[in-house]
Structures are given as structure tokens and as C-alpha cells.
Amino acid sequence: MSPRKVPPSNHDEKEFQCASFVAYILINSVENVRKFFEDRGLDYKQMTPSDITQIPGIQELFSSTWVDYNKAAEQFMEEKADRYIERALKQ
Question: Could you give phi then psi for residue 7, rounded to 5 degrees?
Fold first, then answer.
């Protein structure tokens, strides 16, 4: 993950982009993710979607574009979700 430029001064601290929101949730929910961010001096506010894929333990479940996201998510849920849910419940 590369360093990011500081956001403009008019940046609203209460606004999240998708990737920064995901990173924020992970940092506050998963200890090894929090440590990963702390050890590298990373800031969740500067995360991009491609950065999220670099966090240890992250798994890509499916690929899509904004245009076909609903279809891809629905297909994933129909074909593969049970496998991931069962594994999560066993942990």
C-alpha cells in the first residue's frame, strides 16, 4: 500500500468512502487488522478498494462492476454463500 496525499482541508471527517468505511470496521473489529494498520502507520481514511485486498486474511468472494454488482452478489449468494457461512460459524 502506498502512502496517500493528505485530504483537502474541506474534507468532512464524518464522510466515509466505501473502502475507508470497510477499513474502519475491520480495524475496530479484528485485532490482527488493527495491528497491521498500526505497525505500518496506515490511515483508514486513505484506503482505496485495491488497498483492502492487501489486508492479511481478506478473501475476494466475487468480482463485479458497479453496473452488474447486484447480479454478481445474488449469484454468489445462490451458489457459494453457504460454504462461507458454515466456515464462519465453525470458528
Answer: -65, 155
Q: State which H helix or E strand residue 27 sits in.
A: helix 18-27
Rounded to whole angstroms, the Cα distance separating 1 from 51 reads 6
Would the pLDDT of 60 be above 50?
yes
Flag whether pLDDT at 9 surpasses 50. no
Going by pLDDT thresholds of 50, 70 and 90, the confidence category of residue 2 is: very low
Alpha carbon distance, N-terminus to C-terminus of the chain: 29
- 17 is written with which cell numbers? 468512502
Note the pTM of the prediction, 2 decimals.
0.60
Residue listed under C-alpha cell 483508514: 44
- Going through 1-91 in order, the beta strands assigned E by DSSP cover none
Closest CA to 20 of 32, 7, 31: 7
